[in-house]
Amino acid sequence: xxxTIIGLTGGIGSGKTAVSDRFKALGIHIVDADIAARTVVExxxxxxxxxxxxxxxxxxxxxQTLNRAWLRKQVFADNDKRKKLEEFTHPRIxxxxxxxxxxxxxxxxxxxxxxxxxxxxxxxxxxxxxIDVLESTQIERTCSRDSNDxxxxxxxxxxxxxxxxxxxxxxxxxxxxxxxxxxxxxVFNLHHKILATYL
Length: 199
Description:
This protein is α/β, with parallel strands linked by helices. The protein has one domain: 3-Layer(aba) Sandwich (Rossmann fold), CATH 3.40.50.300. It is built from nine helices and five strands, in the order E-H-E-H-H-H-H-E-E-H-H-H-E-H. The protein is globular.
C-alpha cells in the first residue's frame, strides 16, 4: 500500500525544524529537503561538479565542501545564478527525497521543504501544512540563529514565496509565534487529525 505523504513548508526562520521534531517525537518518518540538498552537493557528486564548473573555485572551501555563505550571496544577488544553481540541484534533491520517502515505516511521512511549492515537490504530497509566522519574527529568529546579516535575510525572504502565497496552498496551518506549549498542542492535534482524516 502506498504511504500517505504530508508536506510541511514555511519560510526561513518559520520554525520548520521545531515543528518536524514534534512530529518525529510522535513516531512520524521525516524527510527533510534541506538534508537532501546538503547530500546531493557533497564533494565529487554530480551537482558539486556542476557547481564547481559554473561558479569556479570560489564556491569551495579548503576541505572542498561548498562555501555556502559565498554561494548564498551570489545567488540571492543575481537571479540568473540562482536559477542555474536550482537547475543543478533541484532534480537531484527531488530524487534524494523520493528515495528517503520509500524508507518509511510510520503511518504517514512528513516531507519538510522550504521550497515545497516553488520546486514542484508539492506534487509528491497529499496535503500541505504551512507554518504561518510574521516576517519580523522570521528575521529576528534567523539573525539570532546564524548571526546572519539582516539585509541578507530580507533578500532570502524576498526570493521565497510570501507567506500569503504559501497559505493559498495550505490544507492545514500551524501558527508558530505563540510559544512552544501552544506549538506542542497544535502538532499533537494535527497529527491525530491526519490519522483520522487523511489516511
